[in-house]
Design a protein that fits this description.
Layout: H1 6-14, H2 30-35, H3 40-49, E1 55-58, E2 84-91, E3 97-105, E4 108-115, E5 137-139, H4 145-151, H5 160-179, E6 183-189, H6 192-199, H7 201-210, H8 212-234, E7 240-244, H9 255-275, E8 279-283, H10 292-298, E9 302-306, H11 316-323, E10 328-334, H12 335-341, H13 344-358, E11 363-368, H14 376-391
Parallel strand pairs: 1-6, 6-7, 7-8, 8-9, 9-10, 10-11
Antiparallel strand pairs: 2-3, 3-4, 4-5
Helix pairs in contact: 6-7, 7-8, 8-9, 9-10, 13-14
Length: 393
């Protein structure tokens, strides 16, 4: 087989073929992006120089550029112009500091409260959508039916300016991949993850049992909002549309709830991507084993984030047995545990096991989820991973 470039190699794997060698594409590489001052084009060049198969993701706005949705990559998030926000801090007699945020909408006021901790990263600000606030929130934003009516004013579709800016970025991305062939991905799609941000994880779990109709109404609103954003991203001619679903595994929902509330909407999103000729990627790194048949029913093309260490209910042989030849598998090595903390022998063993179990066709090797710790050991271990990967492909 003739040598392929990174773009062709990744597309071959996503289409369930066997490329000239198993590709290695890091699904997220924050440590490198920060070194490149969040310049995604520069980061892709460095990854190519390292011998990796890079992915370019659009829209590429960095976390500091999206202060109200730092954990939702993609298009900007806008509120209805009539919405006013108020933020203030309270110091209690018990010595606890709280941050409050109020959203004043035509349908009422939404209020959330966060208990501050030393590692709170947002100063005096509470983002609309964010991982950090979930474990620190003692008053989530959405708690009742009336809250849903007010939420509608916070879920605005992309503006004309957003669409124009995205189209310009997509044009630059297409020019770039002609120069440096790499996979062009777009997103993020969102579903239950957003519901967790708005309701809090424990509260949402209780609501899904006690008030499933309320949760389904919330998911329908998120679905329609996401769909409008998804259509814009698909219009940029991406190869792969990615939905983040870290909180859609059975660590957070029951298979029955997934089948009733998540699967039907997911299927429609997959169908829309396929109508536009775009493959659909689904990031779920834990709690996947009981859902594999539903992933097949949904029609997803790529399961991203297969973590053999931190992922609960993660069985590499079963995943390959169920999804092999039907869904591309992306991952195989734990980033936080094996890559960032492991010994050379542990890393080499993990790489070999991933390749032997999940490959060779329809497989992309990657640390899962994100490489964030920028210390010498991390970069040394990355070299070990790359070396072992090259030895086994």
């Amino acid at each position: 087989m003739a040598d392929e470039n990174s773009r062709t190699r990744l597309l071959t794997a996503i289409h369930l073929g066997q490329p000239d060698r198993i590709p290695c594409c890091f699904m997220s590489f924050a440590a490198l992006r920060l070194r490149m001052d969040e310049d995604r084009f520069a980061a892709a060049r460095v990854e190519a120089e390292m011998g990796l198969d890079p992915m370019l993701f659009i829209p590429s706005a960095s976390r500091p550029m999206r202060p109200d949705h730092p954990d939702l990559r993609g298009l900007p998030v806008h509120f209805d112009p009539r919405v006013e926000t108020v933020e203030y801090r309270e110091h209690t007699e018990e010595g606890v500091d709280f941050l409050y945020k109020e959203y004043h909408t035509p349908a009422g006021v939404l209020t959330t409260r966060v208990r501050l901790s030393e590692d709170w990263p947002h100063g005096a600000h509470i983002p609309f959508l964010d991982d950090y606030q979930v474990p620190r929130t003692d008053q989530p934003l959405i708690r009742s039916q009336q809250d849903l009516e007010a939420l509608d004013y916070l879920l605005m579709p992309p503006s004309e300016s957003d669409i124009t800016c995205y189209q310009d970025e997509a044009a630059r991305a297409h020019a770039f991949i002609q120069e440096l062939p790499c996979l062009l991905a777009g997103g993020w799609g969102i579903g239950m993850d957003m519901a967790n941000w708005l309701c809090g994880m424990q509260n949402l779990m209780m609501l899904s049992v006690d008030q499933p109709e309320l949760v389904e109404e919330l998911l329908e609103r998120i679905y329609l909002w996401n769909l409008a954003r998804m259509r814009v991203v698909l219009g940029g001619g991406v190869d792969l549309y990615i939905r983040r679903a870290w909180y859609e595994g059975v660590d957070f929902v029951t298979p029955r709830f997934y089948h009733r509330a998540i699967l039907p909407r997911l299927k429609k999103e997959v169908e829309l991507a396929h109508e536009k000729g775009v493959k659909f990627g689904y990031i779920c790194s834990s709690g996947t084993a009981p859902l594999l048949d539903m992933f097949l029913e949904a029609g997803i093309d790529v399961l991203i984030g297969i973590d053999p260490v931190q992922g609960t209910h993660t069985d590499l042989p079963k995943t390959r047995e169920k999804l092999g030849g039907k869904v591309c598998l992306w991952g195989g090595v734990s980033a936080a545990v094996t890559l960032e903390q492991g010994s050379e022998s542990e890393i080499r063993s993990a790489v070999r096991r991933a390749i032997q179990t999940l490959g060779p066709d329809g497989f992309i090797l990657s640390p899962v989820d994100n490489i964030t710790v920028d210390v010498p050991l991390t970069w040394k271990n990355i070299d070990v991973l790359i070396d072992e990967w090259k030895k086994n492909v």
